[in-house]
């Protein structure tokens, strides 16, 4: 069985944000599968998804600090800056982490590790709401 659901994420400030509960809530409204895979596809090129530490918020703060250091907004050779100095850095950060995740489903729920959470990486100062397509396959 295949199913899809579009999840509209609210606008968030720049940084890394846990969205595990929002994904789990959307999954709960889809017909249950005992065993399956949930594919998440963020439909944007200036934000990202990753799976990492869900308990200590300093991990998300360190992610943001490292990415801002690694991909600086004051890089002089960037030419794609039409939407501001965070434009090209946001695209690079999105490409480094990616915009999709494939997650296991067991008995209708996300089967994540104890300390794992789904992050939305918002790489723009004013990114706005984001759309996340959930595609569930299973039985």
From TrEMBL:
<comment type="similarity">
    <text>Belongs to the UPF0047 family.</text>
</comment>
<dbReference type="InterPro" id="IPR035917">
    <property type="entry name" value="YjbQ-like_sf"/>
</dbReference>
<dbReference type="InterPro" id="IPR001602">
    <property type="entry name" value="UPF0047_YjbQ-like"/>
</dbReference>
<dbReference type="Pfam" id="PF01894">
    <property type="entry name" value="YjbQ"/>
</dbReference>
<protein>
    <submittedName>
        <fullName>Secondary thiamine-phosphate synthase enzyme YjbQ</fullName>
    </submittedName>
</protein>
């Amino acid at each position: 069985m295949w199913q899809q659901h579009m999840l509209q994420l609210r606008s968030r400030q720049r940084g890394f944000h846990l969205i595990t509960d929002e994904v789990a809530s959307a999954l709960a409204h889809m017909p249950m599968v005992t065993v399956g895979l949930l594919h998440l596809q963020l439909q944007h090129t200036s934000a990202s998804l990753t799976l990492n530490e869900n308990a200590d918020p300093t991990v998300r703060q360190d992610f943001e600090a490292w990415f801002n250091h690694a991909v600086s907004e004051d890089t002089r050779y960037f030419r794609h800056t039409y939407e501001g100095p965070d434009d090209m850095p946001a695209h690079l950060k999105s490409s480094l982490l990616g915009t999709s995740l494939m997650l296991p489903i067991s008995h209708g729920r996300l089967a994540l590790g104890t300390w794992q959470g789904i992050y939305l990486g918002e790489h723009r100062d004013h990114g706005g709401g984001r759309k996340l397509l959930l595609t569930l396959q299973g039985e």
